[in-house]
Amino acid sequence: MNEKLFREIMEINPIYARPGENTEAPRFKMPTDAMLPETAYQIVHDESMMDGNARLNLATFVSTWMDERADKLYREAFDKNAIDKDEYPETARIETYCWTMLADLWHAPKPKETIGCSTTGSSEACMLGGLALKRRWQEKRKAEGKPIDKPNLVMSSAVQVCWKKFCNYFDVEPRYVPISLEHKVLDGYELEKYVDENTIGVVAIMGVTYTGMYEPVDKIAKVLDGIQEKTGLDIQIHVDAASGGMIAPFLQPDNVWDFRLERVASINTSGHKYGLVYPGLGWVVWRDCQSLPDSLIFKVSYLGGTMPTFALNFSRPGAQILLQYWAFLRYGFEGYKKVQGATSDVARYLANEIKKIGPFELWNDASDIPVFAWMMKKDQKHNWGLYDLSDRLRMKGWLIPAYPMPTNLTDLTVQRIVVRNGLGMDLADQLINDMKTEVAYLEKLDQPLPENHRSGFHH
């Protein structure tokens, strides 16, 4: 058999039985010998085939679709290292373009005179925002001759886990303001009970991970204004706008949540969420250069001069930075407004249709970011719950998580849908049809399903 015929047969029928080739691939130990590249590819390809369909994953906030021109640009920039600003000066310049655009979008007083940076995602961006709050508090306390050993950070009990990590990693006491049925988000209620002279800042969330709701940053700022009048405590806000930072400016322009509030010191967002870029990319921007302590900034060589840098990660992909600039150029303000508006329309449609199905009660209606959650009606008895519905929908390819709410509401289970660019009305209709079918199936149960089938979900 000649080589050409052999290769063609193997491509059509890629079984792992070529002469001299191992027929087993180790999983937990480095293989001794090399493997043909096409065989290694096929093994990894086959192993990953059982992953869920990204388009049907309504659990994740992360972008799963981009235009083919963006895909082409991505391939051209696979090898760029974002941290190597001297080797890739244009990527560094484009990074500056992007965060300056965000500073302008979020109404920084002087966008070209402030500072920001890209990150691997909002989690790193939150860490940087928190570090700046802590260092600024430390420097102020030192100047006043006061101790700096007991910093605390105030936030909602529904905060994303990255903030719990920040407090753990950087020795900051977390102070959680519990949400409730009366106060579904951190809204300033009883905030004075949680802040003191050791509070480095308050985190306000534009798009709570559990439900998608906005926390009223203007109301929180007003409460902090009142606290300052009574106690003299000047406490700043970091806005975790991982999702809402790329929704509110386009769909809710009258919502005052950003640098229009003097108490807002820094804002982060995820480029790879509603920034419409593949993972992983985040951004953090400070109100002005004074809001980021100079002691945290490193100066790096850049085109014969120096450039300020502040990041936790070093070598990381630069391609996503170029993709973000592409998206800003491609869509512009009006384009983003149209895309986010269409996504929001789908989310509100789904919320309204799910509400009609019968046993469900909405927690929120997707009027903030295109995310909403629902729960079972309290006054009805069923032999099934939201975990069961989640499992049934997963059989049809839909990933729609069910999970308990945070502290004080852990006995309440909700289910949540995240609508992203790529989920149109046709798929939304298919989801509603599938949900109706599965609810009808579950309603026929004459006894509860066993609980050990339930899959876990983590924010």
UniProtKB/TrEMBL annotation:
TM regions (residue ranges): none
Cofactor(s), by name: pyridoxal 5'-phosphate
GO biological process: L-glutamate catabolic process
SUPFAM superfamilies (UniProt xref): PLP-dependent transferases
Enzyme Commission (EC) number: 4.1.1.15
Keywords, in A-Z order: Decarboxylase, Lyase, Pyridoxal phosphate
Record PTM N6-(pyridoxal phosphate)lysine, positions in chain: K273
GO cellular component term, pick one: cytosol
Reaction equation(s) it catalyzes: L-glutamate + H(+) = 4-aminobutanoate + CO2
Keyword Nucleus applies: no
Keyword Lyase included in the entry's annotation: yes
Entry GO MF terms: aromatic-L-amino-acid decarboxylase activity; glutamate decarboxylase activity; pyridoxal phosphate binding
CDD domains xref list: DOPA_deC_like (cd06450)
Similarity section: Belongs to the group II decarboxylase family.
Protein name: Glutamate decarboxylase
Protein's organism: Streptococcus thermophilus
Gene: gadB
